[in-house]
Structures are given as structure tokens and as C-alpha cells.
Automatic annotation (TrEMBL):
Residues 32-82 are annotated as: Disordered. It comes from Brassica campestris. Belongs to the WD repeat DDB2/WDR76 family. One of its GO terms (molecular function) is DNA binding. This is Uncharacterized protein. WD repeats lie at residues 289-325. Residues 37-51 have a biased composition (Basic residues). The keyword Glycosyltransferase does not apply. Keywords: DNA damage, DNA-binding, Repeat, WD repeat.
Amino acid sequence: MATAYERKRLENNSWNDAMMASLNVHAKASLLSASTKRSRDHSKSLKKQQKKKESEAPIVKQQSLRTRGLTPDSDGLPHGVSVSEGLPFPQYVSLRVLAPLPLDDGDVSHSQFVDTLSGITRKPNEEIATVTENEDDDSFDLRSLCLEPHNVKRIGPERVLVVKFLPCEGVKLVAAGYKEGNVGFWNLDCQSEEEDGGVSLFKLHTYSVTSLVFQQNSFSKVITSSYVVLFRLMDVEKMVFDLVYSRDEYEPIHSLPQRPNDEQSLYFGAGEEMFNVWDLRAGKSVFNWKLHKYMIHTIDFNPQNPHLMATSSQDRTACLWDLRTMGAKKPKALATIDYAKAVYSAYFSPSGLSLATTSRDNYIGVLSGANFEDTSMIYHCNNTVRKISSFRYASASWRGVWGWDDSNIFVGNVAKGIGVSQTKGIDVISTKLKRTVKKLQSPLVKDVISRLHCHPLNVGMLAGSTAGGHVYVWTTK
């Protein structure tokens, strides 16, 4: 006999069956299952067809017009814009603005900067001091150099590749070129309490700024060069950054000097080995020579004999040249100094009687004598901490610069080994004693200083820059 619970369960089952039958649920579930199966089968069929078409489609390689030997098509680009191709890394392919850029965009700091340079250009020529020789090598006391907190500024966010003082006595203006194409100007006399007080930053290039040149007879004009060949001229009077020179080819430039008393010509090394002379007035190249086997890092002219030129190169040599005898297709150097590794710099002393070279082999060379035949090698460990790639080491290298006379060379210092803690700063090397005689160090310095410049007219004013974008200015107490 069924229990009351069993009878209730059977009644519930009967009621559920009757309800399902009235709603026709089973039939609808069957239809839904069949539809889902058909949809799944159809999707699989489409995927098979798509795979078959992809396998049958020809493989097309993406190539630029230039690599296929065709003229690049720039239709559709705005006026004054070109595509920069052929760079070593794809992320650096970018649009280059070739049209003139406006200088004033309404920024108050830019207006102050323009007023500062305009005021300098309006001064009579006799008020602008000229370089005077320092006859007494021991006249300047290195102990008087100090770094004050207000003389530290992060002008831009990237690595500084070049730092220069405006060559005018009594004016404390520093210019810096950055890795991402920015050019910054810092007026140290501006006592603004704001973080960016006295700073004007301009985006002039799409790639690293390698050189800054203040025109000799007009400080309102500044020429900048980019790693990917592009030169711009800042003209404060016209309120514009004009285009001076550009090339689409990838030809890295590391130095862009001018000869003393000749502001109509630009001298630069382009690519792996070529040396060029560009006439600003004619707007064309007037000379083109092959001076080294590999890229030229620096070009410098003797301040007392402008025909005498020094070059340093990746080919492990520093060379002396006489521009008056370089008319041949293969110019012959007056002197060649060989090194074990790449030579980062070769600069003449203020008197023009000596030449200082900086090499990756950790030696600073000092050449002197009537024909620079006397050579002294001074050991200075300058690059043992960081392993720098072949593409970037030229821009991150250390360069020794002369002080305000022929007695001292300034060069950034680093720790003597990986993991060694050492306060970073600047080493002062005596050319007479042939060793480091002082270290300019401060807790304010946060990174290795690799670029230096001594103010050519304000004795005791020294600027150093770092990969972190900071600029430090030492002054006398």
C-alpha cells in the first residue's frame, strides 16, 4: 500500500506532465536544439572556407616606395611636411615639419625670452666684451667654484645632448638640446618663484638635437641641428624658426660648428664618413670631403688660426687639417693621432696652443708644441659603468672641455665599477701636473654629467647636463 508521501509525489508528477504537455515544451526544446546544431555546423563551415581562402591568398610584403626604387609619394600631406624614413628603428619614422615654425605662441615665458635676446641685440657693439687671453695659468682659484640650489634646473624631461652658454659677458643664459627634439633656454637671472621660471622650451625637431650655434654677430639668431638631418634658424627679430637645411636620408649629425669670423658657413659631418661645408647665403653645399672611415663626432676650429681644424671620429683617430689645402678630392691630414677606441672629442684650448682629446679607451690626450707634435696621455676612467649600444654611445659619451685658460680640462666623472657608490660630479684635470687635481661634487647632482660648457666670457661659470634633463651651473662664491 502506497504511503501518503508516495501518493503526493505521484500526483505532483502527473500534474507536471500535464502542464508540460499543455505548453508544448518538449517540442520547442527539440527545435531549439536542432537550430543550435545547425548554427554551429554553419560556423564551422565558414571558418573552413576562410582558412582555405587565406592559404590560397598570395603573401604581400610591405615595402616603402624608396626601398622599391620609386619616388616617395607625399600627396595628401600638409604643406611643409615630409615623411622621415630609413631610420634604424621603426618607432622613429615620423612626420617632419619643413615649413617655418612660429616662435611666439602666446606663452609668457617665451615673451620674456624674446625680450631678453632683443635687448642684447640692441646693445652697441662696444658694450659686448671680447675674449681676452689669461696669461697667468694659476690666476683662477678652483676652490671658489660652488653649486647653489637656485642654479639647478630641469629644463626638459629627456636626455640633454648639448648644452651651451650665450657668449655674452654679463648674461647668464643657457641653451640645451634634448633627445626628443626639444630646445630649451634658461635665463638664470630670472628670479621667478615658479618651477619653470626663466625657462622657454620649444619643440623644433622630431628627433635628437645634437648642436646649438649662436650666431657670432647677432645673438638673436640660433642654429640647431637634428640627428636626422634638419637644421633650423631661430630668428627673434622675425619671430620664426626658419628651415635652413634638410635631407630625407638617414645621416646622423653630431657636430655643427662655425669658424671664427665666418657666420655664413656651417661645417658638419654627415653619415658615416662625409664632411660638408654649407653656405647659408647661397643655400647649398660648397664642399664635400671624406675625412674619416666612420662617423665624425666633433669638429673644432683653432681660435687664433681659423684655418686649422680638428676632428674626432668613431674610426679611433683625431686629425688636424688645414682648410687652405683641402681642395683635393682626398685631403691629407696635417697630423693623425691613433687611439685604441673611438675618439669622442677634440677641442682646441682658448689660446689655440693645445688640443685636448677624449677617447673611449679612458685616456684624455693633450697635444701641444709648434705643430702639436708633443702628446701626453692622461688616464681618466669615464665610461666603465654603463654599457652603451653602438647606436647611442656617441650621444651619451663623455667629452672633456677646456676651462677659461690652458691650464685645466673639465670632464664628468662616474663610479669606478658597477654597484660602487660615489658622488657624481666633474673632474678637473691639470694639463701641467697631468692628473686630476679637484672634483666638483655636490649632493644636488642626481645623475652622471656627460655634457659640459664653460662660459667663454664669464670666468668661473660652468654648466653641466645629465641624461635626466637637469642642467647644473657652477659659479664662483
